[in-house]
Structures are given as structure tokens and as C-alpha cells.
Amino acid sequence: MNTDLIIPGRYLENYDPAHLASHAMEGARKEFAGQVRKGDIVVAGNNFGCGSSREQAVIALKAAGVSAVVAKSFARIFYRNAINLGLPAIVSKDAHVVFSDGDMVLLDSSLGLMRTEDDAKKSSIDRVPSHVEHILAAGGLVPFLKSKLRSEGTNRDV
Amino acid sequence: MAGRTAAEKIIGRAAGNQEAVAGDIVEAEPDLVMSHESTFLVNKSFREIGAGRPWDPEKIVVVLDHRTPANTLQTASVHARIRELVREYGIKRFYDAGEGICHQLLVEERLAKPGQLVLGADSHTPTAGAIGAFATGVGATEMAGIWATGKIWLKIPETVKVVLGNCLPLGSYPKDLALEIVRLLGPSGAEYKCLEMVGDALPGLLISSRMVLCNMSVEAGAKAAIVAPDTVTAQWYSGVVEGRLDMVRSDSDCAYESEMSIDLLKVPPMVSGPHRVELARPVGELEGKHIDQAFIGTCANGRLDDLAAAAGVLKNRKVFPGCRLIVAPASRKVMEEAIDRGFFQTILAAGGTMVPPGCGPCLGAHEGVLGPGETCISSSNRNFPGRMGSDEAEIYLASPATVAASAVEGAIADPRRYLG
Question: Smallest Cβ distance to A55: which of B50, B140, B149?
Fold first, then answer.
């Protein structure tokens, strides 16, 4: 799943999250933007988000309501972008084969588990490294650094 | 202590940790950072962080290249804002629309140097590995974090040794070799890793050729690719950059994650596509496939030797009726030299269209957007659906010579018929 499928280059001039959200996943599934609801989880296979470094791929998914992406593996820039923008990117070896479209699932990062409510389907998820967890907990790199710089008093005012 | 890879040495030095090894997560200070139109988003996040001024404006390069000259009102406003903020922050190394593609300028202007840690807010930043830098791409918010703190966390990657032997046969070019490497590795075969090019082919590969290999490594998922600095590298900086260069090379007893070998003599002209870069095969398998557009340019293959190869094929020939040939030089310097050497005239006489230096049609922004059902052969690095416009268009990747030969025939063609 490359970034041209997540948000095609022709939509990148307009940085408005709502505009980007309305074209989320357009290259892969035209009806996605109309169907996705707040809290939805995208489940995928290998190398999710490969291709361009465009952060708009994460913005589009997040603004469309996606609350996490669970994939077998992530392309490294997409992974960093997701964390930096506060979108959990979670690695699971088999979630993409265990779950199917429309399943209602619970993600429990402390237990390292993704499961359906009735426990009929389960999949283990990788723990997030601690330095990444701090950034996610703050809501992304911007709020993380904002509070870090404030506490250190190291602002360099213009 | 065992020997260390160039990646370990460069990132370790930038992190103030000479013992760091692959797998370690370190906090490093980049020697050079670069962003293009992405600077708009970088600055937005940077302002939100509230750090005041960027940590070191001397280390920041800003290039406008993706939509140049501005293609829409929206882009024009973004460009205007970026011009304003580089003035405000005192960023002197600013390259306005028309100067060229960021990855080309980092090397051509000798902004990036051997042994440096280079971060760019663009996925093809590893191109600068050609001159022996460790260069990798990040997103805009990550770049904002670097502007604010001068630091970035990095995991030191494992290094894959890519042994290149012999030299390319007539009609095959570095692009064909790059496509072969991506075919062998697959789209994620080098994920999180650094590819290091070594072997007896290296002295024969110019900086421009090395740039193609490093650029395309991204399509195999590589975090970076690096060519150890040698006499070719030293020559590149000789008389242009004063002072000693940090010619960092891997130790002979360093630990490589794995090794692959390629006999360059066995690499034929390749064509990759549609839709996936790793779908690369010898040109013979796709010969005769109708094309509507042929595009030569980009950070992969828009340099002087690329335009020379194209002009060699196009000399005294015409682009096939109904087929469009678009050529975008990678920089102003490339354009000026291509004019001096007559390549422009040859391309124009053949019926080609020259567009200004920049990323041009590669990302489907302007200057050659593809319509539904159209097929394009391109010297660029990505052929994903929708990349150049319609997601119902097909894109094939090849060397500039193969693209030019295909433009002449209006169909995918073997460049070897047009040599000499």
C-alpha cells in the first residue's frame, strides 16, 4: 500500500485536513472516504505507506477518523510520520489474515493484543518502543517537543 | 573492537558516540537538512512547537522544485510564504523555482559532502549517498523537530553489501542496473537497511551514475544507500570545496548484514511496470507496447549524461506521430550545458517538448499529467497507480535511452537498435 494510493499527488497542494480526508485511500478503494467512521482501524500487510515522504498520507487517514493502523510492516518514513502526528502505527504479524472488513475489534497495547469483542478472533501486536510511546502519549512530536522545550526553557525567540 | 560500517561511523559521529553499532537508537545532530515545498508544512509544525528560530540556519537548505513555476494559485501562495520565511530565518541556501531538483542541487552544488549525516524532507534523499554521505528521508513534522532542537532519533541500520562487478554492456545504463537491484530485492527487501555499493565496477561509475543507484534504492525500501568515497569522489570536490573531506569508508572487517553480487555485463536494458517498480524485466519482454507519452527527467535520470543518451538516440530522428516526448532537465546547470552541447536542439528537432528544471510530471502535478487509459514510459523512479495523474494510466520505467527509443517508435523499444 503505497502513498500514491493513500493520497494521490494531485491532491497535495491543498493542505486542509478535511480536503485530504475526502480523498483518503482513493487510489486503493474509491468508497473508503465515504465509509470510514471515527475510531476505525486500518489493517494491512507488508510495507504499508511505502513511497513518498508525504505526511499528507497520515493527515488524510487521521482526519478521515482512522484511530490506528495495524500492519505486518511499515515503510520507515510512514511509520515515523504516523508517530510524529500521533497516529498509532502498530506492528502485528498476522492481524491482516486474522481479521476481516467490518470486524469490531479492541486494541489493547498494554496487553499487546488485538481481539474481537467475543474473543473469537485474536492477534498479538508488538509493543511500541518506549521513546515512541512518549511521543504518542503526548499526541505527536509537536506537543511532545513543545512541552519539552518549555520545561527546559530553551526557546530561541525570534 | 570489530570493524565498523560507514553507516555506523557517520551516524555514531553525529551522535557523539563512536561505539554505536547497527540496531542502536541514538540521538544525532544532522550536518545538513533539506526541504522543498514541504518547507511550508515544516514551518507550520515548527511554529506550533514554538522554538523561535531554527537551530542552525547555516545547515538548512530550501529548494522549490515540486511545482515550479507555480502551477496553481495555491502553490503560488505556498511559494510566497516559503520565500518570506527563508528571509526571516536567514536561510541563505535557498534555491528558488527553476534552479533544479533538491537532490540534484545537494550534489551538484557540493552542499552535501562525504561523511555527513544528511536529512531531507523527501523520500529520495538517499541520492546524496552517491558522494559518500549518509542521507535519508523524513516527514515534514520530523524536520520541524530538527529545526527546533537540532536533533533526531535514528536507529543505526544494518548494511547490505552490494558487490558490483565488471561494467555495463553497450545500451545498458545505471538505471538498468538500479532496476535490476530493485527487482532482486523486491519493494521491501532493503527495508530499514543501508545498501553499500562496492566492487570493481565503482571506479567506472561517475557521480551521476552513483546518484541513480542511490536514488532508486528507496524503491527497495532502503533507509539509505552509500558509495564509499574514492578518487571519483575526491575529483568531484577538487578545486570546488576547500579543506579536508571526511572520506568515511567501512572497515574491511566490518559486519555486513548480507551480501549480493551483480555482474554488470549481464544487465540488459530493463523496463519496469506497470504499477510496481520491482516488476522489472528485459526490454525484449515488453517491446512493441504502445505508449502515448515518453518522459525524461527527475532526480533519478534528468542529468547531462541522461540528456546526452537521449539526444544520441533522437539525432536525425522524429518522435512517432501522436506520441508526446517531454524532457525536464534536473537543474539549471544541466539545462545550460545541454543547450551548449546541442542536446536541446536535437530533442526539439525530433519533436520533443522541453519543460523547466524541476520535478515536472513525475508526481502528476503539471507539465504532462496522464489521462485515463494512457500509457507513459518514464526515466523517473516510481510507477505507482495515479502517480502521474489518472489512476487508470500505466507507467513504465526505463533508462533515458530506452525512453527516447520508445518515443521514436511510439511503443516500448530496445535502445540498442539506435546506437552508433
Answer: B140
